[in-house]
TrEMBL record, chains A, B:
Gene3D superfamilies: Homeodomain-like (1.10.10.60), Tetracycline Repressor, domain 2 (1.10.357.10). Residues 42-61 bind DNA. The keyword Transcription applies. This is Transcriptional regulator. Keywords: DNA-binding, Transcription, Transcription regulation. SUPFAM superfamilies: Homeodomain-like, Tetracyclin repressor-like, C-terminal domain. It comes from the Bacteria. PROSITE patterns: HTH_TETR_2. Pfam families: TetR_C_11, TetR_N. One of its GO terms (molecular function) is transcription cis-regulatory region binding. Residues 19-79 form the HTH tetR-type domain.
């Protein structure tokens, strides 16, 4: 990839060139993370793989953690928007299916293994991964708010806690117990979270 | 630690010496994993730190993965036995509290981060971590079987799936979203899993 070479002055807006440099650097970061892991991440090699000047990479990203943090920001920005199927079960099923597809896709599964490993080794990577999930939980929270407004679950249901409950059994199999992650796993995670939500387990206070 | 030096021939049974060598090597493995991670694990350095001959370490463990796999076997063997409080809620609470304490203890939390990272990077480490959780789930499965016999939950409840549901929200916060893991997190995981189990979400077939 040669994003920087295509940025002929006068033909590409500065914003466009910046975006292309970022895309090339993040693609190289992603490839390096998957191939060798966080410990082998080196700014010189990323600059070379992305065909971007070393100075640019050092100035804009500063460190391997800077690269991982920006990659996770980009992943959060690129992620699929929350669904609005009209029922909480439909929306949670869409969410669980999205998580399942992401964690079983041959392209994205190794990337998630790599960022989870980086976060386990490095506190700043952990903060960046936390930021990724905070963004995703905020994006999907309206699904729960709308269901509460429709009276499907208690009004005081903690949206992010319910969404964590849907994702947790899938991530547990993916990153902790290393067991197969099937459509049935996703469907059961939805049924369990929905049943618990309806019973008020995720309510932040007692509702009438 | 100098397990090999204390093994004076004739004073210590061969089994005792073997056990001491293993304890010293696994302690050194644990320390190295926490301090530098799986990628920096080297048999020569483990032998040196454990004050055990290199030949012994290479012959008995063979590779860094061999060390991690044996450490995880030892962790499974040393783990707390399943409780039997007389109620499913009591037993699941004991289980969730055990997981919470393990993942928040300053001694064991870094070790779990390290083995989760190792498993994310290396397929053989993943298989070893899978073995650890398989052992733990088997150890605790009677808790669910007894509850089913008492009629607390459907007879066909999948014991391991219910136990995964208790642990998953705790591990999700620990290793995925990197959020605080509180007593309330553990209590809510128990209430959610129990409610879902009672509603038949973890039943493997429809029961009368």
């Amino acid at each position: 990839m040669s994003a920087s070479k295509s940025a002929t002055p006068g033909t590409v807006r500065p914003g466009g060139r910046t975006a292309k440099v970022r895309a090339a650097v993040l693609e190289a970061t992603r490839d390096a993370l998957v191939a060798e892991g966080f410990h082998a991440l080196h700014l010189d090699r990323i600059a070379s793989a992305a065909e971007v000047g070393k100075t640019t990479v050092y100035r804009r990203w500063g460190s391997p953690v800077g690269l991982v943090a920006d990659l996770l920001r980009d992943m959060a920005e690129q992620s699929v928007a929350a669904s609005d199927t009209g029922s909480l079960e439909g929306d949670l099923t869409a969410n669980a299916d999205l998580v399942r597809r992401t964690l079983t896709d041959p392209g994205s599964a190794p990337l998630f293994h790599a960022v989870i490993a980086a976060a386990a080794c490095d506190g700043d990577c952990a903060a960046a991964l936390n930021g990724f999930y905070t963004t995703r939980l905020k994006e999907w929270a309206p699904v729960v708010t709308r269901a509460a407004e429709r009276g499907e679950i208690p009004a005081s249901t903690d949206a992010t806690e319910l969404l964590r409950a849907v994702a947790a059994p899938l991530y547990y199999r993916f990153a902790i117990s290393h067991e197969p992650l099937t459509e049935e796993t996703a469907a059961r995670a939805v049924r369990a979270a929905l049943t618990a939500a309806q019973a008020g387990v995720y309510a932040t206070r007692t509702t009438p």
